[in-house]
Amino acid sequence: MSSAKRTGGGAPAPHVADSHDLIRVHGARENNLKDVSIEIPKRRLTVFTGVSGSGKSSLVFNTIAAESQRLINETYSAFVQGFMPTLARPEVDVLEGLTTAIIVDQQRMGADPRSTVGTATDVNAMLRILFSRLGEPHIGPPSAYSFNTASVRASGAITVERGNKKAVKATYERTGGMCTRCEGRGSVSDIDLTQLYDDSKSLAEGAFTIPGWKSDSQWTVQVYAQSGFVDPDKPIREYTEKQLRDFLYGEPVKVKVNGVNLTYEGLIPKIQKSFLSKDKEALQPHIRAFVERAVTFTVCPECDGTRLSEGARSSKIGKISIADACAMEIRDLADWVRDLDEPSVAPLLGALRDALDSFVEIGLGYLSLDRPAGTLSGGEAQRVKMIRHLGSSLTDTTYVFDEPTIGLHPHDIQRMNDLLLRLRDKGNTVLVVEHKPEAIAIADHVVDLGPGAGTAGGTVCFEGTVEELRAGDTVTGRHLDDRAALKDTVRASTGALEIRGATTHNLQDVDVDVPLGVLCVVTGVAGSGKSSLIHGSVPAGADVVSVDQSPIKGSRRSNPATYTGLLEPIRKAFAKANGVKPALFSANSEGACPTCNGAGVIYTDLAMMAGVAAPCEDCEGKRFQPAVLEYRFGGRDISEVLAMSVAQAEEFFGSGEARTPAAHKILERLADVGLGYLTLGQPLTTLSGGERQRLKLATHMGDKGGVYVLDEPTTGLHLADVEQLLGLLDRLVDAGKSVIVIEHHQAVMAHADWIIDLGPGAGHDGGRVVFEGTPAALVADRSTLTGEHLAAYVGA
């Protein structure tokens, strides 16, 4: 029964159901949050700000969105939940007023070679149905146009166990669209044998040129030499055909080497398992260089990179095959679909038009459906995920965005803002984690977390409107109106990287000289060809160190100390000081606590319910055996060192009896990129996207390259941290390095010595150099979109 009552003929009292207009969070303690309590208005756009590592993602994603998803999962039966990812209840006392959360995060799309923009958004599925109905000649059902489906034929007898068992003759046939040569990948890989061994030498003479394979003592080499399949004293080029086949492609078999049973397998499968199955970013630099030299990918000669069988390519609507449709820019494909008039498939054409128009509306009309999903930037991947929500009729839903302006030119940010406001105006709650002032400006409500990062953050410093934030005394409020000024003088280049006739992706035969010895910024709207120019066209062997946006893959055992190689000198220092083996100081090796195997926690799997992680009682979460913790260095044990922040460890290893120059050098680089607040043992799985990119940058700063290429290093950086990044870039250039930055942030553009602007538009409207020169000249010229926005930014 309603509690609404009329009072004296006036307006009725509000219905009790309309009183739930707040999301209430009380006592949130996820990651570094310090008992946060907050009220967020529903059906409004709320922006969460704060320095990197202040706890924004912990509050929005790990608390509010995670609990919403967990509660929705609990509405399914236990049987269904067994097939779903299990989610633990967040560390929070009370969460009230939650609605269904739709998360649109920065996670890159899977880099599976068969995943494309079309398959990731279901547009390919609609196209396959369209061609299976209208394509001439007709070759079969939708699966016949799918490069993920292989053709299958089978016949034989099957036994049906029902009542009286009886054998039934059955035949089965499925027509797939997969190219048989490349298996739907579009490219074929070849291993360059000359990079694996010197065929003029024998195995005994050290024929292998693979890193770490030494002929005298290495077990792997001994397996080949003593297998009996080949003569270890005979040059490889003199092997018979059978010996070479066994050497390169032999099936795994057990062999005895020096009295020990080991497995022998051919060199090619061995290399594929040892090197090619691992994440390239996780390999040591010299191994990564070897893999890049040894493996070549070429376009499949049979399907010409379309991934499709000959039958799928031959079926056409008009003169267009499904391969042609997927290769078109999406805005051109949308026009083609709009011109199709076939009443028998009218509902399908309507849905397909809406999906393609959504791509254009969100600024991704320059993509093609056959673009591999793994090649999309974080910002592009996020906007592709938004496609399915734009036309949704759902209301009273909570949309959660993680920096939706990433990878967007200032010209495109207004379009993104309009989309966020449109979602809100349909009656949805929109929660946005953001750093860009242009995106913060449209907020109805702002929540500022901080005041610092890591242990210095985790509290709510401010709640209110944008104007109140601007007047407030928080780090974000003080820096909201920051503007970098154009430099009075710029550095002179010391040389140039010559790029000639670049045609990668949409580049239109570009000739450009990228100056060396300076800070060069490459700009242009999203899709104008910046990455194609720098990542795809820089001459090989140009001594380039590239730090792109590809994610770091790390388990909960991986941490900043292991990823950067910092743990190596620390382990050696502990071992030397105590006269024991370095392996004792690794939680993944001999020093690990036997109860939890060095994880620090005991995981209990509860099937479809969230697993429980309890601190290991034997090591109290320290991950090491008690005996290992008795060994000390500089008055600290290894677990205490891993619990230090980068800033504390930098001081600890920089002087006194714990002075370790090798460790101190790595720690200095971590502090330089603004990660001084991270603890050395913090799992990589808890780091934000921006933190991971800066961790990668710190690691690569030790590489011996003359040219550094950075892809949007301001990703995930607070306004206050951009200044520190500019200082770091200056130090790199002043140290004699050449720095090339692909960037949209105007502060980085203003600070550049030289700007190369691509455009004028995206896709086939881009791919040309529209400006080369100093930032001051670009502002004065104002002939490009970048010039207009940079001029407005610096107040020119």
TrEMBL record:
Q: Which stretches of sequence are listed as region Disordered?
A: 1-21
Positions of the ABC transporter domain: 17-476, 484-785
Q: Mind telling me which Pfam families this protein's record contains?
A: ABC_tran (PF00005), UvrA_DNA-bind (PF17755)
Q: Which InterPro entries match?
A: ABC_transporter-like_ATP-bd (IPR003439), P-loop_NTPase (IPR027417), UvrA_DNA-bd (IPR041552)
Determine if Thylakoid is one of this entry's keywords: no
Cellular location of this protein? Cytoplasm
- Tell me the keywords, alphabetical order: ATP-binding, Cytoplasm, DNA damage, DNA excision, DNA repair, DNA-binding, Excision nuclease, Metal-binding, Nucleotide-binding, Repeat, Zinc, Zinc-finger
Instruction: Please verify whether the record's keywords include DNA damage.
Output: yes
**SUPFAM superfamilies per the UniProt record, alphabetical:** P-loop containing nucleoside triphosphate hydrolases
User: Would you say which domain of life the source belongs to?
Assistant: Bacteria
Tell me its family. Belongs to the ABC transporter superfamily. UvrA family.
PANTHER family according to UniProt? DRUG RESISTANCE ABC TRANSPORTER (PTHR43152:SF2), UVRABC SYSTEM PROTEIN A (PTHR43152)
Name assigned to this protein: UvrABC system protein A
Query: What is the organism field in this record?
Result: Streptomyces parvulus
